[in-house]
Amino acid sequence: MADFHQNGNVATLHNLRTQSAEDMARELTAIGQSRKISLILPSLYSELEGEALPKILDELATVPYLHRIIIGLDRADEDQYRAARKFFARLPQDHVVIWNDSPRMKAIHERLEALGIDPGEPGKGRNVWFCIGYLLGQADSAVMALHDCDIVTYKAEMLTRMVYPLAHPSFPYQLAKGFYPRIGDGKLNGRVSRLLVSPILIALQKVIGTRDYIDFLRAFRYPLSGEFALRIAPLPDLRIPSDWGLEIGVLSEAWRNMAPKSVCQVEIAENYDHKHQPVSEDDAAKGLSRMSVDICKALFRKLAADGTVFSEEIFRSLKATYYRCALDLLEAYSADARLNGLSLDRHREEKMIELFAQNIMTAGQVFLENPAEQPFIPNWSRVHAADPGLTSDMLKAVAEDQEEYA
């Protein structure tokens, strides 16, 4: 993707293949002496048993500029936590495994609930939120990076290219979002981004009119990428969803809190592939079906907070417009795949479009029935205001878990 096109909304930083990742890593090592860089890895225990995470650790072990790696561990019992400690022990960097299901961490959760600050149901968003709280409690980093633990094509260069614009003092950026082409096994991937997010943003502009927020989201080449980095300063005020809307939620917060010139997207890989979620046509609480509903709800709530009025009639129009836009884009995806010798199953993709169209109505109905629902986890500034000692107590809980279950 070696071009230099700019969309005019957010800066796009390309890989023009003229600067080596090794040179960038050496620069970051020097910069990291005064501007420390930390990485968050939200992980399910099951990912320790997959093919991707061991290879990711092999790559991370070669990264010289990381100050700390924070692993948020979900769905693990005591024996699995011990196993995870051994699994991550090969990392040469300072690192910590936060056992989110430990009795001590559950007590922290209950303390938050008692204050009326519910961090939500277990999931990636809540996992990341606790990791951010731990990072803020350490108070020694300048840049936070985050990526998933199921990337089968992972290279350390991905992290280097993502954090470079935030760590380097000559850049003005507060947020960097990774992008890449999604291909694998001879197929065009990225189904939710291609078949839901892109066409629904076009449809929303047709139905409710031009919105700066929609223009902002459309500027990103891959808005659902799980790879992004932030400078530490905005983190205490970051409000993120606890569900599958995390990536859209982070971009929404960037649009609300940051100047457009402080946001960039960075080409971090020539190819990217990860574990593929099942579509789950028969169960809207799982897989890509659940993801599509959560993403739609995140979009509707953010637009409503910006003054957009929704009704059943608008959602019906949106569903019809989305369906037509998605089919039009599918023609372009099909041509792109054919030109590049990739396969694309038109029947399966049209069935996904039909499912997503129905889920737009489902998400709209949920929104209309409970428009005052608070979808975001309260930010850490509010937590500190409500209970100034909670962050330090959480750090203590993590340390005591490490000591007791060593």
TrEMBL record:
InterPro entries: Nucleotide-diphossugar_trans. Keywords: Transferase. It comes from the Bacteria. GO terms for molecular function: transferase activity. This is Glycosyl transferase. It comes from Actibacterium mucosum KCTC 23349.
